Amino acid sequence: MLWRRFAMTGLALGAALLTLISASSLAHAAPSATYGPPKEGTKVVLADTSIDGPAIMATYAPETVLAWTGTDSGRHINLMTSSDGLHYGNKITLPESSLWRPAIAFIDSGRGAPYGTIVLAWTGTDAKHTLNIEFLKMPGYSVVQKVTLWGEWSFTAPAISSINGDVNSDIYLSWAGTDPAHTLNVIHRTTNPETQSKHILWGWSSVSRPNLDKDLSSSAVKPLLMSWTGVNHRIYFASSSDGAIWSEPSASPLTYQSVWAPSMIGFHSTALPTHWLAWTGDGSAGSRRITVKYTQNFPTWSDAGSQTTLSEWAISSPELTYNSYGTENTLLLAWTGTDDAHHLNVATITV
Q: What's residue 178's pLDDT?
């Protein structure tokens, strides 16, 4: 009878072990959070106006920087900051001009708010439309360096992003060239030591400016995320570790179409989906309505119920940003309206 006792004991242990394994498997296979369709939250219409869409970027909690090219006769570039992402002040009008929007990035000084460096990029109003980069120390917008990239030109606005801190920063500038194909280009510029390398992405063309952003999501394999609108007006995207070698996933291009640039961002969040896309268009050619979409399965964008065309219209492409600092977990969308004066708009996006 002793062997039966051992057999029964073995069976009991086996059943317990299977129960534990099943519970563990269920825990690991537990579905991720589910969200409803994107929707517009609080919205503000600013008194300022622009000839193109704005650039928007989160720095420290809860600071947000907004940049745009004004409707004044000089087409001057402007900057403002916000403590909540919706109400702006501390405005400065720079002596620099452009026929398109500027692009902005931020270098973390390691000292926290209000310190750091805004990196501003724009296409000049000279005959060839030369690209420029400027570094502005905060607080106070004091210009510490301006770089004119002689020989580098674009027919529209550039894109810019930064990685690492103030001591040793990596700046990435992207633009569509003035060659017949409007080929995409990327310059990787370091601040310490100061170096620069250029990469021409042959075969990748854009009808508008590209969009460049850091992918801060926990699943990000490569930190740089670039998106653009191809000559077929479909939205493309790719990622890179160094700005030189880019990988385009099989999901690119997406089926969505636009005549302007998209805005694609990735971030770490427990309260919102981590990857977002916004573009001007609703599926019909030339539409100026804004559409917002998210995915929890990047690099695919097939999540059900994850897309909304807002009751908002823009003169060009909108811009997304996300403030991951603090407890607010705020997603912001900025655009220039189609009203007669072309006022700047900023709204929160929720799910």
A: 97
Residue 289: partners with Cβ closer than 8 Å, 6 or more residues away:
280, 281, 282, 309, 310, 311, 312, 313
Beta carbons within 10 angstroms of residue 341's beta carbon: 11
Nearest to 292 by CA among 283, 300, 280: 280
- The terminus-to-terminus CA distance of the chain in angstroms comes to 64
DSSP 62: T
Bridge partners, residue 321, by sequence: 332
CA distances from 334 to 137, 139, 231, 305 (A): 24, 23, 25, 23
| φ, ψ (nearest 5 deg) of residue 15 | -65, -40
Report the candidate in 158, 263, 281 with the shortest Cα–Cα distance to residue 209. 158
Phi, psi (deg, nearest 5) at residue 222: -125, 140
pLDDT digits 0-9 by tens, 154-185: 999 999 999 877 667 899 999 999 999 999 99
CA 311 to chain centre: 22
Beta-bridge mates of residue 137? 117, 142
How high is the pLDDT of residue 328? Answer: 55
Structure tokens at 94: 């720079």
Can you name the residues that pair with 256 across neighbouring β-strands? Answer: none
Cβ neighbours of 349 (radius 10 Å): 21
CB 248 within 8 A of CB 305: no
Q: Note whether 44 and 346 are within 8 A (CB).
A: yes
Measure the CA–CA gap between 50 and 314, rounded to whole angstroms.
11
pLDDT, tens digit, 9 for 90 and up, residues 50-101 = 999 999 998 876 689 999 999 999 999 999 999 889 999 999 999 999 999 9
* Residues ≥6 apart with Cβ < 8 Å to 213: 161, 224, 225, 226, 263, 264, 265, 266
Cβ 120 vs Cβ 107: under 8 Å: no
Q: What is the mean pLDDT of each run of 10 residues along the chain (351 residues)?
A: 39 41 37 82 97 93 89 98 92 98 91 86 98 94 96 98 82 97 97 91 97 86 93 96 95 95 91 94 84 95 95 97 67 97 97 91
